[in-house]
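notes to self, project folder thing:

trying the whole complex as one job this time. last attempt i did each chain seperately and stitching them together was a nightmare. two parts in total, labels are on each line so i dont mix them up again. if this works i'll redo the older ones the same way
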Amino acid sequence: MKIGFLQLRPQFGRVKENVRAAKSMLVGLTDATVVLPELFNTGYLFRNMEEVRDLAESATTGYTVTELKKVAVAQQLNLVFGIAEAKNKKYFNSSVLITSKGKIESYQKAHLFDREKLFFQPGTRSFNAYPVEGGKIGMMICFDWFFPEVSRVLALEGAQVICHPSNLVLPWCQDAMRTRSLENKVFTVTANRIGLEKRGNISLTFTGKSQIVTPKGEVLAQASERSESLKVVEVDLNEALDKTVTPNNDLFKDRKPALYKSILRKAG
Amino acid sequence: MKIGFLQLRPQFGRVKENVRAAKSMLVGLTDATVVLPELFNTGYLFRNMEEVRDLAESATTGYTVTELKKVAVAQQLNLVFGIAEAKNKKYFNSSVLITSKGKIESYQKAHLFDREKLFFQPGTRSFNAYPVEGGKIGMMICFDWFFPEVSRVLALEGAQVICHPSNLVLPWCQDAMRTRSLENKVFTVTANRIGLEKRGNISLTFTGKSQIVTPKGEVLAQASERSESLKVVEVDLNEALDKTVTPNNDLFKDRKPALYKSILRKAG
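result (full assembly):
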């Protein structure tokens, strides 16, 4: 399977232009799994709930999903991308998977970052792995990387590649994702955005360096900090089914869940 | 508090010489927490159970513990070091903590690496944090690093510094420990050994590069790959009590244990 990322520079509030830009960069690509950034269609720095309500969409029937479903089916792509989701008058920072067959799945970000908490509800569904042609895909969004439990659960659920739409502003994620890949023996694709976003008195610079990492923690491809880019590499997703570290160690069979109980304890 | 490591080159089977070498490198140091390598007193490559039985000791009254307890109390040190432990005719790859007050705690390695499984029982007690003057100490051993659950449990139990006696032969740990520090906002001290050990037809080269990492994932000190060395730095362990990432994010309060249930599921 080919897996990769589309690193973009979204413009705040310009959903149609952002979707069009993404589609134009995907022209000619077929038979691949491609990850786009978090909130790629809306931009990141919402100033108030009115903007969120204006720009959020259904994760099954909205404009962005409808447009990208056409691309996914026509070009035989599995597309993973971040949107602001509206559902029953609640708003989520969500990731959508559209398979090459047109099937739609979504994940609502559980670990909201900083001011996202002012505008979005945290997701309350756990982390799932979804079958596509050739393997199983998991999704997590940006700051979820900080919590090792997320990628661990995805891998235990069978994800062979973790798709990771992001809008990164902190310096650590790209290195940490090598550990996320390695400790779970899965592929990870982090699709970051680039550019400066300035709204009101807040401005953020996004760090680019989208990357594809193997189950051994090797970076197969990495984008620059400054350019929009599409990178896709051919990999064997079956590598992620093998959790062997030495002839005597299987990373998952060696786990000792009886010793991990504190992980489910609530914060005191 | 001063925290640091003593990177050593143990000689297989020469317990007295190895203990003497460690003591001589600690001469003059006072008021610090110092981590020594895994199995620092025995060496690593056991060939049969007879060797294990010959070299293993009690983790409370054995030669090594008795000798290092004198040093700990006389020099006001908290010492953490790896030994082959004998207990009720079972054998463990253990880490011992002797506090500056002479109190002894121990941890039996839960995740055994490769051929260690031929000689040692896996530990079945969970991961604890132990109070010392100025903070709380957690212990894990070498390959435990590969399992994010271990350092997570230690941090949730209140460890401010994770002491990590090691005999590393794989290339990834030193980088991954930066993520272990960061994702838990704790200090980590990895004490590795150096040297080539060749026994029968097996030989291993240990990778050195012992290190001290801050809760922000910064490497404060790192040893070379080839020299024995003692490095100690002054840190404020209270930094590890602050789990703040942004004004709106506390790494522990933001956790969503209800979504992490798969982590306790046994391997299928």
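what i see at first glance: Chain B touches chain A through 51 residues (CB under 8 Å).
need to look closer tmrw
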